[in-house]
Amino acid sequence: MASSEDARGRALTRVLRASIPAVAAAACLGVLAACGSPTSTANSPQPNPPTSSSPTPIRSASTGGAQPAAVDPTRATAPGAVPAKPPTVHQFTPFDENGRRLVHARAAGHGSCFATSIAVPVAGVFRCLIGNTILDPCFASARESTPPTVACFADPWSTGQIITLTRALPKYDPVLTEGNPWAIVLGNGRRCVSVTGAVPALGDVDLTYRCDGNDAAGITVNDNGTVTAHYGPSAGPLVDTAVLDEWRGRSYRFAATP
Q: Which domain of life is it from (predicted)?
């Protein structure tokens, strides 16, 4: 009997040992089913989706990113600002080649000339003084007169002033060029005349012309020969407009008197 009982005990022990791994495995599967797999993301919190599919711009730390194009508050462009053709050129000649005066002028007293004209920088045209007033341009006749005189004009449209000279004209023959026009007429009808003193500036524009209504202008000569004026109050803003007409001075006295 003892041996028979021992045999049954050993058999039961083998069954129990064989069943322990299976029970443990079943228990583990039950736990996973109840708690979920540790690698599953089904119930894990998700990051918020992006609000836009556009890429985020990258800004430079040194510059703060791209800057908008600069806008010059002193400049604007008016309709018709682009000139259709070069301006019509008018020659202003108060004396003909024989010394005869062609335009009206009145006697203004005695004075003298001390330099070549700034407004009309050609030979035979001068910068003169009467009292404490500078007159420029002053045109010398091609023929000598007694007493010697010059005719001075504020602009091509005004009556001139005849100055009787108290001394000879400057005794030098400088190298001269025509430079910019003496006077211009703009597309808006305004007339402007060259400044012969200190020239104000606004931004990158030298306001070399004084215009009707105390306005001012600078000019740009374009590659095709047309001329654009940058016109407006000296404090701005300036408006680009076409130059339709220009005046240039001429003297038949081609060189200063030696």
A: Bacteria
For the chain, the straight-line distance linking the first and the last C-alpha, in angstroms and rounded, comes to: 163
**Which distant-in-sequence residues (6+ apart) come within 8 Å of 55 by Cβ?**
none
DSSP per-residue string spanning 155-167 = STTSPEEEEEESS
Q: Which two tokens stand for residue 21?
A: 């791994």
Q: Determine the pLDDT at residue 94.
A: 94
Whether 127 contacts 136, CB under 8 Å: yes
Residue 54: partners with Cβ closer than 8 Å, 6 or more residues away: none
Q: E strands along the chain, which residues?
A: 75-77, 88-92, 105-116, 125-130, 133-140, 149-152, 160-165, 183-186, 191-194, 201-202, 205-206, 209-211, 216-221, 227-232, 238-249
Pairing of strands 133-140, 149-152: antiparallel
Cβ-contact 108, 255 below 8 angstroms: no
Please name which of 232, 241, 179, 174 lies closest in space to residue 203, comparing C-alpha atoms: 232
For residue range 32-87, what is the model confidence (pLDDT) as tens digits? Answer: 333 343 333 334 444 443 333 333 332 222 333 333 223 344 455 555 566 789 99
pTM flag (> 0.85):
no
Residue range 140-191, pLDDT digits in tens: 998 888 889 999 999 999 999 999 999 999 876 666 777 899 999 999 999 9
| Local structure of residue 63 (DSSP, 8 states) | T
